[in-house]
Amino acid sequence: MSNINARKVVYDTLYEIFYNEAYSNITLNKFFKQNGIEEQNKRFISEIVYGTLKNKLFLEHILKTYSKGRVKPKVKVILLMSIYQIKFMDKTPNFAVIDEAVKLSKKIAGNITGKFVNGILRNIERNINDLALKYKNSEEQFCIENSCPFELYKILVDQYGNNKAKAIIESFNNKSENSIRYNPNKVTKKELLEILGNDAKESTICEDSIIIDKLDINSKYFKEGYYIIQDEASALVACSIGENIEEKYKILDTCAAPGGKSLHIASKYLNSTLISCDKYIHKLALIKDNIKRLGITNIDVKEQDATNINSSFINNFDIVVCDVPCSGIGVIKNKPEIKYKITNKYVEDISKLQYQILENSKNYVKKGGILMYSTCTIDKRENIENIERFLEENKNFVLDKINLINSDVKAEENGVLEILPDDYNCDGFFIAKLRKLEEKC
Fold first, then answer.
1. What pLDDT does residue 110 have?
2. Which residues bind S-adenosyl-L-methionine (predicted)?
């Protein structure tokens, strides 16, 4: 694939994300598949896409400084991805980056646009070591240089204090380590570590996870179901249940897609049965595909909207997993587009949805049973504040302390797990274990 074609894929991907609110990982994989991208070009394209996304506000600030007037959306995408390469990448000479940007802009928006792109990029390139950028104050400078929208910055400062908020925001521009979870139906962890060799090591966060240098979905071991790709923090949900794995439980996952937690729980509690629910049929199909690949036989999938009560589920399950939709602030390292969508209203709305799902899910738990609540966010309104409200309104539930084995992550004083993305090189996450009390005699 030529550079111009590789950059066209970068352009197509970024345009979809910026203007059609697409998700970075899904969009990249779509264009990789459509264009038959080779591994080397995948790395090149991914670096520019994720780099441009993570630094979007900073790149826009540079562009605004060196351009006059409004820049059309298509041209803006080309300029931002090119400024990123000039500022942060040294694999391609600057003159070549500019030349490719001009060619691409002519192809996308016409010959006149090529002159415009050439002029702006050459001006930026001449001044790249001294851009003379101006800011209103130190807060604006921090937010722009770290490409963090001011509203998200204020949310984190209000909840965690200035220093911790800044550390969290700076961690967003790092990437979490590549994590996989071994499948005990096919292989032991020791055997998989031996197969993967020097490219793999044990996780210090989750006992069932392995850290590898590079993810490869074309690996025969992945295709044969020896492992599944799952972040270490996400894999802690199954480990946090902490019940006797030899027992037979009826387990329900109310918001299962894309299925990683359901699959993990089913493979860990092999004597139990699990119903994996989601309201989207196409997402249930993904779970079914992984069930087949991993050779798991104790899961059934069911189309079910977690915001609606299912009368056949009431008081019917020993363990109910409630991994609710969330704002996703905890996964910004790997999905940087999320940070540009966060507003107070968005968080407040989604926290209400979460509470509705939690209130529904409590009805499915047997007396003495477990209700697991988890999110991949770090906003307290979606996490501990939902739990505190639930406990206040449901006196027949109490918090159980989560005790992990072989993990650097320790529970808070109240027993919950609160994983912040600057403390560990994984996603931010929240997990609470609630137990439904037996009736007193």
1. 86
2. 255-261, 278, 305, 323
325 is in an annotated binding site: no
Q: Is 257 assigned a ligand-binding role in the annotation?
A: yes
Residue in 189, 203, 254 with CA at minimum distance from that of residue 231? 203
33 pLDDT more than 80: yes
3-state secondary structure of 78: helix
Q: Residues 6 or more apart from 400 whose CB is under 8 A from it?
A: 242, 370, 415, 433, 434, 435
**What single string gives the DSSP state of each residue in 185-203?**
TT--HHHHHHHHGGGEEE-
The tokens 């036989």 sit on which residue? Answer: 297
Note the pLDDT of residue 407: 96
Maximal CA-CA distance, the chain:
83
Q: Hey, how many other C-beta atoms are within 10 angstroms of the C-beta on 379? A: 27
Burial of 122 (0-12, 13-18, 19+ CB in 10 A): middle
Cα angle, residue 146 at apex, residues 386 and 78 outer, rounded to 5°: 115
CA distance 314 to 363: 5
φ/ψ bin of 110: left (φ > 0), alpha (ψ from -120 to 50), beta (otherwise): left
Neighbours of 102 (CB within 10 A): 22
Confidence of residue 36 (pLDDT cuts 50, 70, 90): confident
Token code pair at residue 226:
């020896």
In 3-state terms the chain splits into helix, strand, coil percentages (rounded to 5) of 50, 15, 35
Verify cis geometry, omega within 30 degrees of 0, for the bond prior to 258.
Answer: yes
> How far, in Å, CA of 124 to CA of 82, rounded?
10
Contact in structure between 121 and 83 (CB atoms under 8 Å): yes
Q: Is 259 annotated as a binding residue?
A: yes
Alpha-carbon distance of 378 to 338, in angstroms, equals 13
- The reply, when asked if residue 255 is annotated as ligand binding, is yes
161 is known to lie in a ligand binding site: no
For 254, other C-beta atoms within 10 Å of its C-beta total 27
* Residue 217 one-letter amino acid: I
**Residues carrying an active site annotation:** 376
- The pLDDT score that the predictor gives to residue 441 is 42
Per DSSP, helices labelled H in 295-371 are: 344-362
Element (H, E) at 311: none
Q: Which of 327, 331, 340 is closest to 18 using CA atoms?
A: 340
Mean pLDDT score of the chain = 94
β-bridge pairing 317-323 and 365-375:
parallel
CA distance 265 to 274: 8
Sign of the CA dihedral 365, 370, 376, 379? Answer: positive
